[in-house]
Design brief:
Elements: H1 2-10, E1 26-32, H2 37-54, E2 58-64, E3 69-73, E4 76-80, H3 85-100, H4 104-117, H5 124-130, H6 136-142, H7 145-159, E5 170-173, H8 179-196
Parallel strand pairs: 1-2
Antiparallel strand pairs: 1-5, 3-4
Helix pairs in contact: 1-7, 2-4, 2-8, 3-6, 3-7, 4-5
Length: 206
């Protein structure tokens, strides 16, 4: 029963706090890698601190895949990640966390902790404990075909990007990609959000 439930969860749309069309929130979609130094810098220095301050105005949607490649084997999917096998394990765990952590606040805190520690799945239990998260369903997902399937589905989602991802983190604002905006967001996400969302008070944009 538990495995069936996890399989159903794995087939759900891979969205976290996606903003409806009439929302005042700016959607920030980030495709990243769990052991990418540039992903770490963006997450810990830009995304998480800006989200903490502007969470009323930002809907964050995270996908951990990046420059992963995969092939189907006899026992499931075999992934190869640009920063090694530990990154693949971390990527699977992070996508399992996405569908199993109950609140956005816990998920964002957990994700930032993982990126800050920069040891992938090795710090997952510690980060879960820090944010009062039940790690059991995440572990069950990550240690079975469910996690593999979930990462595969993430890869299929990433393949719909136009233009295709070339580096990580790959950032879209309100589902639109421009290289200029992505590079600006990597340096100063607050400035980008304030430029596109006039609902953000001026006092939060300085």
């Amino acid at each position: 029963m538990a495995l069936r439930r996890l399989l159903l969860l794995a087939l759900l749309p891979l969205l976290l706090d996606a903003a409806p069309a009439n929302s005042k929130k700016t959607k920030v979609s980030v495709y990243y890698e769990s052991l990418s130094p540039k992903s770490k810098a963006f997450f810990t220095e830009q995304l998480y601190p800006v989200w903490l301050d502007l969470k009323e105005y930002i809907a964050v949607d995270l996908y951990v895949y990046g420059r992963t490649t995969e092939e189907v084997g006899t026992t499931g999917y075999k992934f190869e990640c640009i920063h090694g096998s530990d990154e693949c394990v971390g990527n699977v765990m992070m996508m399992c966390a996405k569908i199993n952590i109950p609140t956005v606040e816990q998920y964002m805190g957990f994700s930032n902790c993982i990126m800050e520690e920069f040891q992938g799945a090795a710090k997952s239990v510690d980060c879960a404990t820090k944010f009062a998260i039940d790690y059991t369903p995440i572990e069950q997902c990550a240690s079975t075909f469910v996690g593999q399937h979930l990462l595969h589905q993430t890869g299929l989602k990433q393949q719909t990007l136009s233009p295709a991802l070339e580096s990580a983190p790959w950032i879209l604002i309100n589902d639109v990609f421009t290289e200029e905006q992505m590079m600006a967001a990597r340096q100063d996400l607050r400035k980008v959000v304030c430029a596109v969302n006039k609902e953000v008070p001026a006092t939060k944009c300085n």
